[in-house]
Automatic annotation (TrEMBL):
Sequence similarity: Belongs to the IL-6 superfamily.
GO molecular function: cytokine activity
Keyword RNA-binding part of the UniProt annotation: no
Quaternary structure and interacting proteins, as annotated: Forms a heteromeric complex with cardiotrophin-like cytokine CRLF1/CLF-1; the CRLF1-CLCF1 complex is a ligand for the ciliary neurotrophic factor receptor/CNTFR. The CRLF1-CLCF1 heterodimer binds SORL1 (via N-terminal ectodomain); within this complex, the interaction is mediated predominantly by the CRLF1 moiety. The tripartite signaling complex formed by CRLF1, CLCF1 and CNTFR also binds SORL1.
A Pfam family the protein falls into: PRF
Cellular localization per UniProt: Secreted
GO annotation, cellular component aspect: CNTFR-CLCF1 complex; CRLF-CLCF1 complex; extracellular space
InterPro entries according to UniProt: 4_helix_cytokine-like_core, PRF/CT
Protein's UniProt name: Cardiotrophin-like cytokine factor 1
Amino acid sequence: GDSWGIFTFLCAALCQLPALPALNCTEELGTSQSIQKTYDLTRYLEHQLRTLAGTYLNYLGPPFNEPDFNPPRLARAERVPSATVDLDLWRGLTDNARLAANYRAYSRLLCYLRALDGQAATADLRHRLGHFCSSLQGLVLSIAGVMSSLGYPLPVGPVGPPTGPPSSLVVAPNDFLKKMDDFWLLKELQTWLWRSAKDFNRLKKKVPPAVVTLRLEARGF
């Protein structure tokens, strides 16, 4: 009947769709996906750091691997970018300012971590540190991608350690102070990642999700 004829016609028409050279399905890979990727990476690094920190603190030995060890921050450790900013002040910054601060901080923290990688005595610990550094490098690049997609320029000027090469952090007057530097580096990194995950979670809620569009271009008609 008529219903069967209409059904047959629709099937034939659908079979011909792949042959239309002008039909394109394009996904707008944009800001929302870049933010989601960065958020996922911060959460992955948080998980990865929990294991790495435990392993490294055991390598440092007591009192650094004791759960209640909470020493005052020394002047030497102040070269490590601090995440201990008042939460209300941090939230009051523009998205651009927070992204720039994250980009600068992780770029510097990466330099210091690479110095630890070169100092670690065991092959297993060097491997763990090297893998974490690669992931953190990915986070730096991902933050740069988010800034670019939002139209924000990357911070100008040096983003590495402010006082000389990365090794300047690990050169301490004695072994205890060097271990203290390492302890604070890991502690600040944990706080940065915790706060960054919250930053990107809020940011992704501001940006609408990617849109899948069908674009039909008439050619030859």
